[in-house]
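Hi R.,

As promised, here are both runs. First protein below:
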Amino acid sequence: MAPSNRNASIKAKTHFFKNLSLATVLEGSGETASWTGSKIMATIGPSIHDTDVLASLLEAGMVAGRVDLTWGPLDFHRNSLHNLSEAMRRTRRLCSTVIDTMGRELMIRGQWQVNDQGYPWVLGRNEVQAGQSITITTRPEVVATESILPIMYPKFTKMAQRGDTIYIARYLVSGAESSSLYLEVTDVSEFDVVCVAKNSAVLEGLLCVFHAERSQGNGLSNTQNELPLLSDWDKQCIAALGSEFEIDFLNLSYTRCAEDVREARRFLHGLGMTNTKLLAKIETRQALLNFQGILSEADGIVISRGNLGLDCDPEKMALVQKTLIQACNLVGKPVLITRVVDTMVNTPRPTRAEATDVANAVLDGVDGILLGAETLRGKYPLDAVRTVASICRAAEAVFDHSNHYEYLMDAAFEAMAQAVARGEDDEGDDDIATQMVANGELRDVAGGSALAGSSQRASFTTAVKTMAKFSMVASSNNLASLTKDPSTGMITSGSTGGLYNNSVLRGTPYLSKLESIASSAVRAADKVRASLIVVYTHTGQTAELVAKYRPPMPILTLVVPHLVNDGLKWQLEGRSYARQCLVSRGLLPFLATPNSGEALLEDAVKHALRLGLVKARDQVVVVQRVHEDFCVKIVAVADNGTGIERDEEGTLSKSSSLKHIPSYVA
């Protein structure tokens, strides 16, 4: 079906601060480091390879350890994961294990030697002056010099043409260091690409090549390299490490389209790694053009801002980042960003721009921060983790959770209202929701009166049911050239002028009723000013849906192990799901014993008391499965601060059960 010319736009989410007093902003927070909602993923390299350092990082706030297959031998990465496992055992803290692929990376061939940790360092140091002629050659016998750089991809000359911009820099640099070199192509022959240096630079370390997209607007004019999504090296390492360790996430470098994600998933399933989730890295304009499909297939998104910033106009990067985060928030999938405190590779304190960048990302709704060179080869890895965690906590304290919640509800209602107006809504059991909108019946979740001040808003239940429809709309397949309509203030994209194409509304399913329970829990927690939400889950899905609404209180996630049958044997699953919850903002996962009922809830509240998350008389909202139903209930912490408040007979004191619905396995 050809795309519809009718387009819907939605207002971008804005930040609101309830208190504009600078005196309040500047006073100490008195915070403890027991909980940070935003997540920190650290890249394991020579700087943090040691078990003691990894243990310190876990205590400082690191929740995911990433090994990068782009550089380093298999034994080094194997030892890294072994040391991470030992650090987890020593600190009694969960940590996700992440493998980042090399994929379609283009690299300059150089000479290297291995240090005492088993990590290879590239030898040589070339100083390049602005205006100097540099030749990138595909000839395999050439050794790198100051004027000739041998590239490892034999078809590079087929990609380049006169006038192209080529960027060469040390792996994991921000673009501002002295090792960043911008080249302009002046001539192309069978084996050589002749360039002129646009700036002076010092080239050292592992050098990577990025061929910037030459086109503007919505198209792609560059010839893309023909390298596979997963190199032979990637496959070898994934198979080897996956057989020895429980790998929670695979970061897919240079993801271009939805089929890339499907290909990676088939490969993992072939290895028996069915529990490993996929995080697609958005690094190029091509990924932006195909973002709808990528977001639909992937389990989460990593905005790789280093390469993406080279492929997009500088003035568009803020819009691109905010829109990607907004789309991920709407569908409830975790999103992380890279390249935030690059200067902390060499300094113990970030620049004001970097600190502001981290805080703004948290206010935009990002789930986590991925640290690269800061922890891989940085001089201050522990300071970097502590600093980012502190900035995140400060931003979370002023995040307008209520506005975010209302934004999701309003977005869902707008999508449903537009679908109803065009008569495009699906038939079936959920058609009652359509009729409620059409008839103007705005009912609360409990069947009561309309929400206060919401004469233009759909009912709570109706709104959450439409979120899936809007999610498909928000996952725009064209984010490459974002603009703002001056007459409406709407963010739009593409030649049609609309970021969100209504044609994708057709045929998309309603959200499951499980999300209705999740959003009800967040609303209940806000109404009673709860200090904690406790969620029982098997796979983490229920907790992730609760986290989507960004409640201000921690979400203590009790991952209850369950038996599964792979066709050959029964096994107990749960640990991997608990670790995977660590990348979703606001979740505090714990692997529960198979115990059930009041004893498990009592243990959870006592643990929250020990962590300082709740105190006596605080309210706790619980999302729990009762027989074949899910329910939301509210309990109170006992006056003496020792557990849950109980009556004289020893049973739970009066609790409020808000909603029961048919069970959907979490």
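And here is the second one, sequence first, then its structure tokens:
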Amino acid sequence: QLFLSLMIAHHDGAIKMVEELRDQPGSTYDPILNEFASDITNDQAVEIERMNLLLIGLSSDPRAGLAAGLYDAEEAIMNMQLLESQRKPMGFYDPANPAERGAEEPDKDADMEDGESVAEDEEEITSIEEEAKNRRYPMLSFSNTDMAFRDDILVTGSYHGFNIYSINEEGFPELITSVICPGGQGDVSLVGDLLIYSVEETRGRLDCGLEGVTVDASLDRFRGLRIFDISDLSRPKQVGAVQTCRGSHTHSVVSGPTPDGKILVYNSGTGSVREEEELEQCIEDIPGDDRTALFRIDVIEIPVDDPSQSRIIDSPAVFADPETGVLAGLWRGGDHGEDSQETEITDQCHDITVFPSANLAAGACSGNGILFDITDPSKPKRIDVVSDTGFAYWHSATFNNEGTKVLFTDEWGGGGRARCRAWDPLNWGADAIYDIIDEKLEFRSHYKMPAPQLETENCVAHNGSIVPVPGRDIFVQAWYQGGISVIDFTDSLNPIEIAYFDRGPIMEDELITGGYWSVYYYEGAIYGTEITRGLDILKLIPSEYLSENEIAAAALAYPMIGHRRAFNPQQQVPMDWPASPEVARAYIDQLQRDKAIDEKTVEQIIEKLDQVKIEMEMGGNNRLARQINRFSLSVEGLNADVQTKSRLERLDATLKGISESL
């Protein structure tokens, strides 16, 4: 393994040398140099692929080297159970090309005269990644994307529209209706009877038509936020549309409905700036012109009673230098020095995750991670900024349940490339975990899915959510074709993987963008949108890392603020738990795991908890209530760490709550 790793570094060094050679003045116009450089790059890449395959064969991780297949790929799973896999609904895939394979470019040699074409036995062997670059793909036109939940409703977004499902009592989605409305990327949020939908691609039309828009500027084009009324789930109706200069890649529901009936949304556009002829005041990057649509987010107001009047109320320049006012006030793009990552310029936010109860938002903003004060949600204020020498593109952010940590992700390679190979750095395309100390982001650790992946598996950190286990910080995350990881980051310095699920690549010999776009926990189940295959439903099962009581307690969690049954991906609401025996037992399991509670005390508490359910069904029991209330779990004077004290306090509060309910 060491030999192969060193040889890969050697071949990769040759590729870097060629890149430096190509950066020399005049190299662009030298055909012989370009041919030489291309040959060197391709030959080295092919050798690296061969050695990566050997390293995968030496790995002991069950996820390494899984067999390929569109619907019959080999699977590996740990501490999870796959409950159901549903394929995409009709109309949301191409029956002639369900895998969304790329078409080969026309053969340039075919037009040559006889004798000039390259002989078949001399055909150049190219790397899998280079081969993918030379194919024409259907532009993610049917790809599944993000999800949102409300009550027993699940909405899955797509580059082609969205699908609405009803979740039955077993947690399985049943399709209600499909809406075809192309434009990508189709991120969704639910607020009451309104569905908010992001559109960024230039093919998007106001009328949701399939024919697209072919001219540079057209009043038929739509790029921005669509608003649908879904009060009749079988017949969604578009009732609002907000055009934006860079479209809508993602959006965040910040607040609302307010007492005056308004919803406030942050919009993040990452596309090109549209023609001013098409939309007034859309100005590109003209030197010295501070009116540019770059370096901004949009603050959008949606009136619930009349969404047709939705509008942009501000487009703050959130990256500006506070002293000079220069809009490009943060990372300017480029590497951070030797052996560091090439990081994108900070001129956009990919995701902004809001935590309104703490007046905070975390922005994953291409070249930087940002902490915002959103006390005034219409005017977000930057309070801290961080960078990472291993991050290529700051993609998403997730708070822990207390709002005291942020987990940022890096989408190195844009999501369409294999970036979990055996030789890829474990701090590139990874998570970065920060503690929030006095309104400052303090770096603690990186985490990356550890299983080496094939060259045909696009893999990098992507979307996930908190699993609301009381007393712990647990995150379920998508890694595209790297599968699903469940990570415990309770100890910010030492995140560990406690469960996973993975499939083999879609194709054995072709790199196709697939795998999980998003995986979210909702009411006891984990739902995952597979970009190419469909929708998966999984659950956690007891293990040495997670007890049956902790899993049961997570399923009882509910939002402390707002609607009791809801989940929007970039809007985090702290979760709470009922005073129930399951929750008490979860805390006891954690304290026992850390040997922080006396076993005799545990036996006494468990004996009383075993009686609660029956007594509650019979209308309560004052004597049992008094017995439970007498348990003393005071932390005063206790020599224990902060986490142990917190769990004891929460266990005590839960027991007191159970006593009151009896």
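A quick note on the second one: The helical segments are 2-22, 31-58, 128-133, 548-555, 581-593, 599-617, 622-629, 642-661. Let me know what you think.

Best,
J.
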